[in-house]
Predict the 3D structure of the following.
Amino acid sequence: MSETKANYLKGISFGMVTCLLWGILPVMLKIALEDFSSSTIIWFRFAFSFFVLLVYLSWINKKPFTIITRPPALGLLAGVCLAANYYYFMVGLELSGPSNTAVVIQIAPLLVVIAGTILFKERFDKGKQFGVLLAIMGFVGFYFDQRSHAANPDQYFIANGNIVFSAIVWAIYAVAMKRLTGKHEAQNLNFLVYGLAAIVLMPGTQWTELAKADGVGWLLLVLLGLNTVLAYGSLLEALKYIPLSHISMITALNPFVTMTTMAVVSWFGFTEPEQITTLGYAGATLAISGVAWVVGK
């Protein structure tokens, strides 16, 4: 096997790990919201990830604090954007549900493609235009299906507004990190981003929730922290080997992972089952197919 092919397979593998972890994440977060507030969960995830990377980078002698003493401006922007992405994603999740959040957040890869067209003069041919149209049709179908089942339609609308904003700031984060990956070590960049995000989100943390948490609660928080470390670590490793468009195509599939995971955990009684009809599943499939088509072209 040639080195080029081996590196491409590495990139695909890292992308698939990110897809799987992002797929199960909304379900884990929804369960965690029963015991913790959104602000506490997202602060812990960043703080945990920061200290894990501190230990790891120190162990392999990557001098983690170097990037903090001389942080790149785009790295600071990425940290603020990722903090905002986590926060508004959680608000949308709390007001709607895991599958809805996983589907609507797929607007983010479309925004990355649009950003590439504007900033990097990448082509936006008729094939991509068709994919965008397909995705829009799917998003609309899924939206009306979920809105018809929402206990409070106005709240559902607000939830989606938060998720869309979360997608916008994630697209900014992705573009900034893509610009930086050739100049800095991937995990050092994550170290900077996690530390900054933890500082930004610290004022909203409910410390009493952590003090009262039992063993199961702490285990769930640690698993969420590990999800952050592994998912974003894999994402930046993938960026070293394959184009962002290929990674986006893979991660666009994570709503299917979310829906499958929700069906399993609701069957075991860990959470309430979601109400998705044929229109909803058809809309989600159409939206995800459109996104995959656009980012993969």
Q: What stands out?
A: Residues 3-296 form one domain. The chain has one domain: 3-296. The first helix runs from residue 3 to 32.
